[in-house]
Amino acid sequence: MNHCWAILLAVVGFCYVSGQSSNGASPNFQCPPHQEINPCACNVKKNGLDIMCEFTDNFHISKAMTVLKGRTSVIVFYLKLRHNNLPKLQSFIFLGIDIRHLTIHNSSLAVVEESSLSSMGIGLTQLDLSQNNLGSVPSPALKNLHHLLILNLNHNKISVVHSKAFEGLDTLEILTLYENKITTIEDGAFKGLSKKLRRLNIGGNGLTAVPKAVGHLDNLRKLEMQENSISHISERDFEGLVKLDSLGLAHNHLRNVPPKAFSHLKELNSLELDGNSITFIDPEAFVGLEVSLQYLRLGDNNIHTIPSDALKRLHRLRHLDLRSNNISFIPEDAFTGFGDSITFLNLQKNNIKFLPAMGFDNLNSLETLNLQNNKLVHIPEEIMEPIVDTLRVVDIMDNPLICDCELRWYKDWLKNLKDKDDEMMQKKRTVCTMEHEHREYPVQSMPLDRMNCVGKNMERTSASSAPSLIASALIPPLIMLNCL
């Protein structure tokens, strides 16, 4: 009886706790009646209310905010205003409401009045004003947001970032201005952000040079300037960015990488230069990055040979992407002196016709090799032998491969990999052509019994060919030599 009573108390206790909030939230977090904030919707979350207003206008949003203002001790953890007709954010619209994350997205917002956000300085940590019609940074409305961590101004119509545009945002860690119409960033634009700002995205704009303003951000870790019109870079462009870990310059108009361009970036780990028009990389281009750079992307350029002289100093390089260039030849010493740390090598979509005998000898750690869509006819086992034991992925699809005994290694490697349940490699359809039959075969199904493999490959032929091998062993050496 006592046992049953204990169970009953436990059940009652559980129901009481569950009745407070299905998400474990405080009893104070209660949504207003739906009819009072309609067409907005409200849900209770662990840290406060989650309120969404979509496809409505300023009148109904203001009405819903008035209802929330009358409720003390309520935290609106998320306020999401999306796809609305809200050309102007009126003064004091959020006065008296504790909002932590505010999103006004795709709502035709063009004017943010100075007092519209001023009351939110204590609690607001994230502000998203993306995909609107803002023609400039709404600096007066932002200056009192002293606890803001993330500001998203992506997809607006900002053309100039004026000096002191973000003054007052001394706690800001992430600032994104992606895909505006920015052509000018004044020298003092980021004044006040140097203490905390870690990530800056100014990609997708009309910049023609690296703005000097970024040089004052000495705590910046990630700088994204992709999809601009930057045509030249120099050593002084990045002076001051002593803690930068990642630099994105993809899809600009660079034609060469000059000497010591990144020499001030002693902690740079990742560098993206893909999608430019680079034809020349100076042998001293990566000076200063010897012990830091691990990820280098040079794909989609106009490089004609592996830039070994520039790469040799990168002793910690792990990921090298050279896809979609005009490389037709790999020198035997292409990876000498620096290849032993590379785990990922992408050479797809080039014009490589053959592989040198010792081209991969130094790639002792290679796990992924992509040679897809080149002009390779033969891939001899001797070339792959130094790396075949560490490889987890080898992509040789879309090459005019000939079915020959030199390709037997791939079939054996794939079989061993299958034992490790590597599904991705099993799904790739790699084919070769039997010349005298004018017929394609999956490499896994090459007709080895009709290919007369000898030498090292003979030892690995299938059991079905064993009788012929035994018979050949009985032929005198001179006759056997003539046959061969």
Structure description:
- Keywords: Leucine-rich repeat, Repeat, Signal.
- It comes from Apolygus lucorum (Small green plant bug).
- Pfam families: LRR_1, LRR_8.
- This is LRRCT domain-containing protein.
- By secondary structure, the protein is an alpha/beta fold.
- The chain has a domain of 137 residues: Leucine-rich repeat, LRR (right-handed beta-alpha superhelix) (Alpha-Beta Horseshoe).
- It contains 10 helices and 24 strands.
- A 16-stranded mixed beta sheet has the order 1-2-3-5-7-8-10-12-13-14-16-18-19-20-21-22, with no helix packed on it. A two-stranded parallel ribbon has the order 4-6. Strands 9-11 form a two-stranded parallel sheet.
- Helix 4 links the parallel strand 7 and strand 8.
- The chain is elongated, with a radius of gyration of 32 Å.
- The relative contact order is 0.04.
- The N terminus and C terminus are likely disordered.
Number of strands: 24
CATH superfamily of the domain at 21-157: Ribonuclease Inhibitor
Largest sheet: 16 strands, mixed
Give the CATH level 1 class of the domain at 21-157.
Answer: Alpha Beta
* Overall mean confidence score, pLDDT: 87
- Helical element count? 10
Rounded to an integer in angstroms, the radius of gyration calculated over CA atoms is 32 Å
What sort of overall outline do the alpha carbons produce when their principal axes are compared? elongated
Low-confidence stretches: 1-27, 457-484
Examine the coordinates and then state which fold CATH places here, giving the name of the CATH topology of the domain at 21-157: Leucine-rich repeat, LRR (right-handed beta-alpha superhelix)
In whole angstroms, how far apart are the ends? 94 Å
CATH architecture of the domain at 21-157: Alpha-Beta Horseshoe
Kindly state the percentage of residues in helix.
10-25%
Q: What order do the strands of the largest sheet run in, or round the barrel if closed?
A: 1-2-3-5-7-8-10-12-13-14-16-18-19-20-21-22
How large is the share of residues in beta strands?
15-25%
